[in-house]
Automatic annotation (TrEMBL):
Keywords: 4Fe-4S, Cytoplasm, Iron, Iron-sulfur, Metal-binding, S-adenosyl-L-methionine, Transferase, tRNA processing
The protein's name in its UniProt record: tRNA-2-methylthio-N(6)-dimethylallyladenosine synthase
Subunit structure: Monomer.
Source organism: Streptomyces silvensis
Ligand binding ([4Fe-4S] cluster 2): C173, C177, C180
Reactions catalysed, as given in the entry: N(6)-dimethylallyladenosine(37) in tRNA + (sulfur carrier)-SH + AH2 + 2 S-adenosyl-L-methionine = 2-methylsulfanyl-N(6)-dimethylallyladenosine(37) in tRNA + (sulfur carrier)-H + 5'-deoxyadenosine + L-methionine + A + S-adenosyl-L-homocysteine + 2 H(+)
């Protein structure tokens, strides 16, 4: 572990409840880590700042991502905008964690000496202690653990949803993809004990959660620690035996480890949803080899064919990188070929960007920006057409939706609600006369399809009130009764909106 300190000018303690705000960037692993950071802070007596505080909290935490090009510039830009606010607000603290903190370490406090705490991906549990130490010692605390100190799921968690939850089954990754820095920052794969995973799921279900997503950098490599190649399919089947658990999802698998027993478990376990996010990255065997991906086009399409044979209505999504170093027009055409053959419900597409510290960043034949942009636009146009065609096939179908919270940005204006179908398609539906809560289940008929969502414009056919809806209602009542965090009410100084969390598997490196 490394540690250092820099003067930050903290002030005497104020005897009020201190508020916090967390800004999250990157993949679902970071989103789940932020839930743990919230749990840790609330366990230590902090109070979550009201929505829209935008830097008005007493403690602002950045949970960073190192995958995107210019991720560091974005971080330092946001930190720079908070500097004058911190000057105006004695006692305010700023913390930086996540992958960029793991990578840059002491650089952060050198470039932004007003930062109070820097912590890594392996020691998120130290945040409250480091904040207190920085306040008392009036020095910035930098602690980066080189290996995992404790499996993160043992930490307190403030989950963002009352009805759906992430459940980590592993951390780290054993792959060596040339475009990805995640293994260097998250470490080698470490699997969690199956009994601990199932105990957490059972506890969540007892609290009212009805949907869980199994989470890992390479989720279907689960079991590699103990040499059991069928451990992941066994875990899926075990989830199927948990009473009250209605929906099971997982992200993200790797084609190398996607075996027939997993397909069988998906098809034969009723609460495992007919949805699969399977990163492609490229359809060219030449590029896949340069990426150090261990499968080829034929193997990938073979998996898709087997999944469709076993689960005909499965919605399959993917990640694709355009413009990897050395990618030729012929290579790109191979990617388009796979997209046409696979007919993805959605594809999360990324223009290749250099990621410092990765082998790909040093490769020859970096593709000119204008070429990458042109290819990207062609890919997006093709996928939009396919997504629309695939969604049109849903028109006339009767679907069960789990009502979602905050998914339909126009719901208030359109008098609709939104929910997710079993295959994870987003559906906006007419608000029924009966009260419907997030976590409840409705049955609707699809009447219209757009590339990225479906509409059910007729009357809702059925409403099923659920324990998950009860949990949402109970949680909202409890939140309303809580006192708000104490804010100083200083005028805003132009703090920018947080960057959106990436869709799909987030970093695109699975």
């Amino acid at each position: 572990m490394t540690s250092s300190s820099v003067r930050t000018g903290a002030v005497d303690e104020v005897a009020v409840a201190r508020s916090y705000e967390i800004r999250t960037y990157g993949c679902q692993m970071n989103v789940h880590d932020s839930e743990r950071l919230s749990g840790l802070l609330e366990d230590a007596g902090y109070v979550r700042a009201p929505e829209g505080s935008d830097g008005d909290a007493d403690v602002v935490v950045f949970n960073t991502c190192a995958v995107r090009e210019n991720a560091d510039n974005r971080l330092y830009g946001n930190l720079g905008r908070l500097a004058p606010r911190k000057t105006q607000r004695p006692g305010m603290q700023i913390a930086v964690g996540g992958c960029l903190a793991q990578k840059d370490r002491d650089t952060i406090v050198k470039r932004a000496p007003w930062v109070d705490v820097v912590f890594g991906t392996h020691n998120i549990g130290k945040l409250p202690v480091l904040l207190e130490r920085a306040r008392v010692q009036e020095e910035a605390q930098v602690e980066i653990a080189e290996s995992l100190e404790a499996f993160p799921s043992t930490l307190p968690t403030r989950r963002e949803s009352a009805y759906a939850a992430w459940v980590s089954i592993s951390v780290g990754c054993n792959n060596t993809c040339t475009f990805c820095i995640v293994p260097a920052l998250r470490g080698k794969e470490k699997d969690r004990r199956t009994g601990d995973i199932l105990a957490e799921i059972e506890a969540l279900v007892a609290e009212g959660v009805s949907e869980i997503t199994l989470l890992g950098q390479n989720v279907n490599a689960y079991g590699s620690d103990i040499g059991d190649r069928e451990a992941f399919s066994k875990l899926l089947r075990a989830c199927g035996r948990i009473e009250g658990l209605e929906r099971v999802r997982f992200t993200s698998p790797h084609p190398r480890d996607f075996t027939d027993d997993v397909i069988a478990a998906m098809a034969e376990t009723p609460n495992v949803m007919p949805q699969l996010h399977m990163p492609l990255q490229s359809g060219s065997d030449t590029v896949l080899k340069a990426m150090r991906r261990s499968y080829r086009q034929e193997r990938y399409l073979g998996i898709i064919e087997k999944v469709r044979a076993a689960i005909p209505h499965a919605a399959i999504t993917t990640d694709i990188i355009v413009g990897f170093p050395g990618e030729t027009e012929e290579d790109f055409e191979q990617t388009l070929h796979v997209v046409r053959e696979a007919r993805f419900a959605q594809a999360f597409t990324f223009q290749y960007s250099k990621r410092p510290g990765t082998p790909a960043a040093e490769m020859d034949d970096q593709i000119p920006k204008e070429v990458v942009q042109a290819r990207y636009e062609r890919l997006v146009a093709l996928q939009e057409e396919i997504s629309w065609d695939e969604n049109k096939k849903q028109v006339g179908r009767t679907l069960e939706l789990m009502v979602a919270e905050g998914e339909g940005r126009k719901d208030g204006a359109t008098h609709r609600l939104s929910g997710r179908a079993a295959d994870n398609r987003l559906v906006h539906f007419t608000k029924p006369d009966t009260e419907v809560r997030p976590g409840d289940v409705v049955t609707v008929e699809i009447t219209y399809a757009a590339p990225h969502h479906l509409l059910a414009e007729g009357a809702v056919l059925d409403v099923r009130r659920t324990r998950a809806g009860d949990a949402w209602e109970k949680r909202n009542a409890a939140e309303a009764a809580k006192p708000a965090g104490v804010l100083l009410g200083l005028p805003k100084v132009g703090v920018p909106q947080p960057l959106p969390v990436a869709a799909g598997s987030g970093c695109g490196c699975d």
